[in-house]
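RECORD TYPE: inverse folding
INPUT: structure tokens
STRUCTURE:
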């Protein structure tokens, strides 16, 4: 398959994955990741829950924030059901509550807020001064260069093509982690162009916002999710959508971690367009438990 066709298939595969099916009023079903094994990626659950909330919203209101709590790990063996509750419908704002369930048990609880577009006072943080994505290698290419360090059982998973292309500004070693300051930045984008539906672009950004974030709080400790005695999991996830953007254009994800303790790590993120607009902010606390 030609490279462009392969990238297009990957991108539209993610679009298809995030398209939830309406099976009753305010009840939706999310698809399984084809070939998925083990635990569902948290960004997928968040993005599908956001899509369910967006499907229940009529009119000009657009999602501007979501707050989610992970309660149980999702399984790739089953689809996910999303129940939407319409808590509030106002003139300017609306609120939706989404419960994601598998096998009769909730795995995620999310609240999302929608606003009718309007103008107002404006300010924002400046984008960090970093090299452009064209000057950086992709995460997949970096892993291919380090193939001798990757155990055979992990190679297929770590080297497979993915719908979200990531180009880290300061690459880190997955198998020889070093102690670093709790700051990192990466460019990311959907690997091929898609349509102009802003709700879909918001869902894809929600999906990608769970990448690279939790690992920030492990940087000062010289460990990562490959460390054999480190148990990690997302506990919650909050996303604020500030401005319009395209998920198939390059976006810079700058993250930091101001605190970790008591087997938890707190992480923050800012997402910028290439021209320096701050389009989203993220916060997440995760489990980082060292086991004997």
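DESIGNED SEQUENCE:
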């Amino acid at each position: 398959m030609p490279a462009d066709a392969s990238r297009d298939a990957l991108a539209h595969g993610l679009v298809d994955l995030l398209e939830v099916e309406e099976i009753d009023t305010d009840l939706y079903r999310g698809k399984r990741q084809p070939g998925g094994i083990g635990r569902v990626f948290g960004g997928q659950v968040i993005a599908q829950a956001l899509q369910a909330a967006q499907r229940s919203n009529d009119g000009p209101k657009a999602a501007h924030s979501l707050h989610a709590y992970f309660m149980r790990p999702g399984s790739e063996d089953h689809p996910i059901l999303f129940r939407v509750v319409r808590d509030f419908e106002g003139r300017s704002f609306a609120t939706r509550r989404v419960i994601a369930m598998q096998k009769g048990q909730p795995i995620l609880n999310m609240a999302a807020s929608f606003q009718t577009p309007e103008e107002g006072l404006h300010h924002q943080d400046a984008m960090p001064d970093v090299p452009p994505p064209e000057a950086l290698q992709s995460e997949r290419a970096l892993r291919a260069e380090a193939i001798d360090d990757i155990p055979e059982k992990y190679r297929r998973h770590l080297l497979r093509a993915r719908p979200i292309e990531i180009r880290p500004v300061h690459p880190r070693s997955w198998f020889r982690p070093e102690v670093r300051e709790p700051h990192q930045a990466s460019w990311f984008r959907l690997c091929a162009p898609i349509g102009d539906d802003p709700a879909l672009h918001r869902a894809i950004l929600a999906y990608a916002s769970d990448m690279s974030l939790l690992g920030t709080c492990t940087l000062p400790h010289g460990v990562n999710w490959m460390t054999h005695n480190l148990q990690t999991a997302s506990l919650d996830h909050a996303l604020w959508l500030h401005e319009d953007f395209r998920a198939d254009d390059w976006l810079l994800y700058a993250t930091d971690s101001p605190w970790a303790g008591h087997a938890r790590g707190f992480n923050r993120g800012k997402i910028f367009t290439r021209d320096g607009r701050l389009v989203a902010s993220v916060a997440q606390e995760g489990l980082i438990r060292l086991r004997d």
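NOTES: The longest strand covers residues 278-290.
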